[in-house]
Amino acid sequence: METINSNREENLSEAQHNDTVKEDPEDPNIQTSDIQLPQEVLCDSCMDGPSKALKSCLTCLVSYCEAHLRPHLENIKFQNHRLVDPRHDIDCRTCEVHQLPLDCFCLMDGYCVCLDCASEEHEGHTIASVGEARAQIEIEMQNRQEEIGQSTIAAEKTIEKLQSNNDFIKSSIEEISTLVEQQFARMQATVEEARKRALKVLEGEQRQALRQAESIHAHVHQRRTELMKTVAQMDKISRNKSDVDFLLEYTEWKKGTADVHLPSVYINRMNHLTSFVQVVTDATQELCELILSSYRDKLSTFGKGGTKSLMQEFQPSPIPDPETREDFLKYTSSLSFDPDTAHHFLRVTEDNRKLTNTSPWQHSYPDHPDRFEYWRQAMTFQSIYLGRHYVEAELSGEGAHVGVTYKSIDRKGEQSTSCITGNDISWCVGRKSRGFFAWHAGQDTALEVTDIKRIGLYVDFHQGSVSFYDVTDPMRLLHRYNAHLVEPLYVTVWLSKKDNVVCLVNER
Questions:
Q1: Is residue 396 a part of any domain in this protein?
Q2: Where is this region: Disordered (predicted)?
Q3: In the predicted model, what is the mean pLDDT of the chain?
Q4: Are 56 and 63 in contact (CB under 8 A)?
Q5: For the whole prediction, is pTM greater than 0.70?
C-alpha cells in the first residue's frame, strides 16, 4: 500500500514538474513572440471554464486537469491506466497489445503500429510516422487519382468512339443492305428473264403444234369433202335403172376416181414436253444449289475473319505463360455475382461471391431482363476482356458448374442453348454423376480427375484460350479450349441440384 501511495505521489510530482518545465522557456535568448506555441490541451471533465490538461489517459481516452486527475493517482481502480503527456489526438486508436498510440506506420506490412511494435515485431521494417506515411500515401493517392482520371477520360472517349462506331455500323449496314437488295433484285430480274425465255420457248412450241394441227385439220377436212362427193356420185350411178347406162357411167366414173383411202394421221400430243419440264426442273435445281452453296461458302469465309475486337489491337504478350499458382494469381480478377441475374432458386451471399441452390425455396427477387428464368444460373457483375485473367472457384455438390460466356446468352429460354453447357458462346466445367466434364456447344469431354473442390479458370484473350486447372501444387491443366474471342466474358455458374454451391475465391 505504501508503494502504491509512493507511485501516486511520484506521478503527481512528475506531472507538476513537467507542467512547470513546459511553462518556462528553454532558452532565455529566444523571444516568446518568435515561438508559435501549440494550442493547449484542455481538460475534458471541466464543465465550466475548462482548465489546462495535465495528463491524458490512454485507457480512458480523456485528458484531465490537476483536479480531475487525482482519482487516477489516488484510486486503486485506476492504477493500471496509462497516463501520458496531454495529447490532442487522445481519441485516436491505440495499440491493442501495448496500449500505446498508433504513432507509426509500417510501410512494408501496411499497418499502423506503436513505438513498441516498431521496435519489436516490425524491427528492421521501413517505419514512418503516421503523418509522414499519410503525406506519402496522399501523394500516391493523388497520382493514382490522376491515373484514374486519365483512364476515365480515355474510357469516355472510347465510349464516344464506340457510339460513333455503332452509328457508323448501322449506317454502313443500311447502305450495304441496299446494295444487297439491289444484287438480289438483279438476280431476281435474271431469274424473271430466264422464266420469260422458258415460257417463250413453250409458247413457240404451242404455236408450232397448233399450226401443224390446223394444217392437218384442213387437209383431212378437204379429203372428207372429196370422199363425200365420191359417195354422192356413187349414189347417182346406183339409181340408174338401165343396166347398159349404169355400166357405162360406172366405167367412166372409175377412170377418174381418186384414192378413197384416208392415210393415217399423226396427232401430236406434245409428249416431248415432258423432257422440257425435266430440263427446266434440273436447271432450276442446279442453279439453286449453286446459289446457296456459293453464298454459304463465301459468306462463311467472310464471317471467320470479319469480326474483330473494336478495342485497340495488341500484339501477343512477350511474357511467358504462367506455370505455378503464384504466376496465375498475378492475373487474378476480383469478381462478384450480379444479383439481378440470379435465378429465383439461387441465394447470393458473402459479398455476392457465393451462390447456393436452395431448391425448392425461392427468393423474392424482382423481375429483371437480365435474370435467368429457367436455368438455375447466375452471372458475374464484372466482365473480363483483353489480356490475361485468372479466377478460382470452389465447387460443392454433384451438379455444380462454372465457366464463362458472352453477355448475349439467352436468359429466358428453356432450350439447352440457354445453358452454359449447350451453346457455342460458353465454355465450362462441372461435376455430374459420372465424374468431372468440360462442356462447349453441347459436347462434353470427360476429365481425368476423381474429386476436386477448387477450379482455376484462366483466360488469355490474345491466344484465344479458355483453360481450366486443378488448383494443386503444381497446377494441373484439366482442359483447354481454343476459341475466337471477340466479346467480353462473364463468369457464369449453373447449379442444377439442391444444395449445390459455388464460391468465387478472391486471392492474390
A1: yes
A2: 1-31
A3: 84
A4: yes
A5: no
